[in-house]
């Protein structure tokens, strides 16, 4: 091991009288350098002030983890471990942009402190996290989730659920929103939410979608006695009480079709 000195913490000196002379002694403390440790300091790139609680991780050249530690109140850190010939440094703290270094030869760090600078992270807004399942508790993938601001008809943003039925929105500002949840085989759901500034992550209650009831179709062909298709023939669909519910006309091939029919008994009259 070898030793070197480190700067002292700030010392407060107060002069209360004119022509007062004060003798202030400062004692330099010694830092012990461990050949098997990575040491340094983390500060705010804009203000230069030390940052406490930064997670500093040492990885090998392929980003496999080796060791990590946190910066102290003065922004200092020391990480011990069995390091590979080249290492990478990753530093992260909430509110700051994560930094990662290029590969650094380990021997170049001997008796040398790393000075890391973190920049405040841009404001990415709030995050909405939610999940969508069917009535059997199974996740539903590929569901379109659209978010609207207030009463606006224009989408604020949209996304789709993943294989686990999970959706995420970011860059959301505080305010009132409604969320539309749509899937071809399920009944649409609308959810209204109020988002405040004290909610950086909004975890939504799971949404359970009910399947749409598949309605029936009736189709056929109208011909004359010689089996020739008749075009533009009137076809009337009646319900079980013989009351008309739909009508249509055949196409040039004599084809007609009724759709979106509720379960029941029907009769057909053609003219």
The unreliable regions are: 1-5
H and E string: EEEEEEEEEEEEEEEEEEEEEEE
Shape: elongated
- Which CATH architecture of the largest domain? Sandwich
Give the helix/strand class: mainly beta
Percentage beta strand: over 45%
Structure description:
The chain has 271 residues and is mainly beta. It has three domains: 2-118, Immunoglobulin-like, CATH 2.60.40; 126-209, Sandwich (Immunoglobulin-like); 216-270, Sandwich (Immunoglobulin-like). The strands form seven sheets. Strands 4, 5, 7, 8 and 9 form a five-stranded antiparallel beta sheet that branches. Strands 11, 14, 17 and 18 form a four-stranded mixed beta sheet that branches. 14% of the residues are buried. β4 and β5 (65-70) form a beta hairpin. Helix content is 0%, strand content 49%. The chain contains no helices and 23 strands.
Question: Topology, pairings included?
Answer:
Layout: E1 2-6, E2 29-33, E3 37-44, E4 55-60, E5 65-70, E6 76-80, E7 86-92, E8 99-100, E9 104-105, E10 114-118, E11 126-134, E12 144-149, E13 155-160, E14 166-172, E15 175-183, E16 186-195, E17 201-203, E18 207-209, E19 216-221, E20 234-238, E21 244-249, E22 255-261, E23 267-270
Parallel strand pairs: 3-10, 11-17, 11-18
Antiparallel strand pairs: 1-2, 3-6, 4-5, 4-7, 7-8, 7-9, 11-14, 12-13, 12-15, 15-16, 19-22, 20-21, 20-23
How would you describe this structure in keywords?
mainly beta; Immunoglobulin-like; five-stranded antiparallel β-sheet; four-stranded mixed β-sheet; 23 strands; disordered N terminus
């Amino acid at each position: 091991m070898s030793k070197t000195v480190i700067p002292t913490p700030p010392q407060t000196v107060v002069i209360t009288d004119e022509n007062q002379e004060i003798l202030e002694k400062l004692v330099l403390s010694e830092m012990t350098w461990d050949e098997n440790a990575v040491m340094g300091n983390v500060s705010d790139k804009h203000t230069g002030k030390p940052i406490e609680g930064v997670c500093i991780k040492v990885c090998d050249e392929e980003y496999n983890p080796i060791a990590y530690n946190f910066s102290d109140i003065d922004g200092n850190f020391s990480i011990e471990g069995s390091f590979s010939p080249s290492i990478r440094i990753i530093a992260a703290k909430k509110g700051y942009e994560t930094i990662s270094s290029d590969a650094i030869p380990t021997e170049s760090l001997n008796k040398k402190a790393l000075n890391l600078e973190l920049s405040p992270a841009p404001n990415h807004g709030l995050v909405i996290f939610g999940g969508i399942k069917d009535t059997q508790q199974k996740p539903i993938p590929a569901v379109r989730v659209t978010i609207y601001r207030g009463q606006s008809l224009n989408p604020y943003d949209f996304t789709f659920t993943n294989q686990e039925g999970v959706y995420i929105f970011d860059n959301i500002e505080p305010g009132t929103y409604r969320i539309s949840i749509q899937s071809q085989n399920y009944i649409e759901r609308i959810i209204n939410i109020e988002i405040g500034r004290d909610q950086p992550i909004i975890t939504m209650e799971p949404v359970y979608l009910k399947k749409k009831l598949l309605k029936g179709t009736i189709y056929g062909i109208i011909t004359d006695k010689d089996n020739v298709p008749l075009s533009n023939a009137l076809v009337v669909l009646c319900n079980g009480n013989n009351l008309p519910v739909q009508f249509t006309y055949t196409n040039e091939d004599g084809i007609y079709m009724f759709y979106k029919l509720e379960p029941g008994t029907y009769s057909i009259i053609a003219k």
